[in-house]
Every structure is written in C-alpha cells, then in structure tokens.
Design goal:
With 122 residues, the protein is of the alpha+beta class. The protein contains five helices and five strands, in the order ααβααββαββ. α2 packs across α3, α2 crosses α4 and α3 crosses α4. The longest helix has 15 residues.
Length: 122
C-alpha cells in the first residue's frame, strides 16, 4: 500500500535475469554469402568436372574446416545459374559445374598495358 506523496516502491530484481554481456559478432557465427560462393567455385574448379551437390557440400565443409548448412550450399548453387554471367551450370538434376564464363575469368593471365605499347603478359 502506498500513501499519497510517497514514492512508489522499486520492483524487486530477485528472480529476474540480468542482461547478458555482448557475445560474438553475427559475422563470426554466420558464413557470408560471398565466402560460400568462393568455396563452391574453388571446389568445382579443383575437381575439374561436374559434381553431385551433396559432394560439393561435403568438400566445402572440408575446405572451410567447419559445418556449412546444406541449405546454403544448395541455395548458392541454384541462385547463381541464371545471371548474364553465371558462376555455375546445372548439368543434370543435382549435378553442377563451373560455368565457362567463370572459368575464363579465373584462367585469363594478367596483362600489363601502357599507352602505345602492345599488350604483354605479366
């Protein structure tokens, strides 16, 4: 019971959880999409031919040294098929490879060019 003019009683903190200290940054727990794309590209290029999506997933986990959600690998493969310069190609149900345009962007040698001189390899 409170009396007029008296301050209200402070609520008890007994039994209430204290706020938790800040934990790890979100980026340390969740793989960034670019890292998954790079890992999948690396696996498919190293293999040199098309692979089953489940095998790609297993190799990506081995490469990264940590669990990678199957749904992330599957979504990354499916989501990078139809752009003007797709990274991956779907060769059959559940089988993927690196697209020709992605292979060319990696295998082209670097060139140096100065005005008035022919292109030469670095």
């Amino acid at each position: 019971m409170t009396h007029p003019g008296m301050p209200k009683p402070v609520a008890s903190t007994v039994g209430r959880a204290l706020p938790e200290p800040p934990g790890e940054a979100v980026g340390t727990k969740h793989l960034r999409q670019g890292r998954i794309i790079d890992a999948i590209s690396h696996v498919l290029r190293d293999e040199g031919h098309h692979m089953k999506a489940r095998d790609v997933h297993a190799r990506v986990e081995t490469l990264r040294g940590e669990p990678v959600p199957w749904s992330s690998v599957k979504a990354t493969l499916a989501g990078n098929l139809t752009s003007p310069t797709p990274r991956f190609v779907r060769l059959a149900r559940g089988r993927y490879g690196v697209s020709f345009s992605a292979q060319m962007s990696v295998s082209r040698p670097a060139t140096t060019e100065t005005p008035g001189s022919p292109r030469r390899q670095a």
